Amino acid sequence: xxxxxxxxxxxxxxxxxxxxxxxxxxxxxxxxxxxxxxxxxxxxxxxxxxxxxxxxxxxxxxxxxxxxxxxxxxxxxxxxxxxxxxxxxxxxxxxxxxxxxxxxxxxxxxxxxxxxxxxxxxxxxxxxxxxxxxxxxxxxxxxxxxxxxxxxxxxxxxxxxxxxxxxxxxxxxxxxxxxxxxxxxxxxxxxxxxxxxxxxxxxxxxxxxxxxxxxxxxxxxxxxxxxxxxxxxxxxxxxxxxxxxxxxxxxxxxxxxxxxxxxxxxxxxxxxxxxxxxxxxxxxxxxxxxxxxxxxxxxxxxxxxxxxxxxxxxxxxxxxxx
Length: 322
Ligand SMILES: [Zn+2]
Hints:
11 helices, two-stranded antiparallel sheet, binds zinc ion, globular
């Protein structure tokens, strides 16, 4: 019908070629890959209608599997992420892609499933998610005057978390480094390994309510276990991909299953075409940056290395409308 009104449509062969090349990641067939997985709901809370689970290969940051699940297919909205993961896993198996490690947030259903049904892979928790959760919990505490003195330390605490993960392989080593944090911020440096004392921030007073709440939060066994299981892989591209889906399928608009399915597949194709674009250089051959001041950085300027503009070959050349 589309061709009768002069709209070009890809042949079935072209469609399957692109599907194989850009969606299924056939080039990974037979290889062992480290992947990150995450779910994205079409609306916040527990009332989401669609969930998309995406698996990203962590070396080249290409999406190698992505599945759309409708909440009516499973028991609840919360179960969509795990169902999507199971379907992605089936697809990887179909293409003989072997998974050596999976990095996810600490979604309980996923954690239990991997432990019981997929024990041959290493399962890491995403450090970015752990840090984000801790930052949020600490920021909430500082809203009351009693705990306000914690605020200047939040950034350092999160940086220390990354350092513990990145600088250690052994779980015990990570725990030991993490535990040092509390004595350091209360101005007790007997176990610290630094020579000069940083003095830009007011120390947390020993025995104060701030110290007690920090001790409770930072030394909780749940957080320490998360740090021990944290992965060193950079998963920011997966977050960026999920943000990109919003351009193709804004959360405020309702879509049919087919509509949603087409839209997120376009996002996958866009992402895989553009994820590893080269960086821009000036005529003098120097790297180019953009400067932004986001509210997250408390209006401190952030320099970001610019990449060359994205291309849409897969969307517009191959599927040319006219
Ligand atoms: Zn110290």
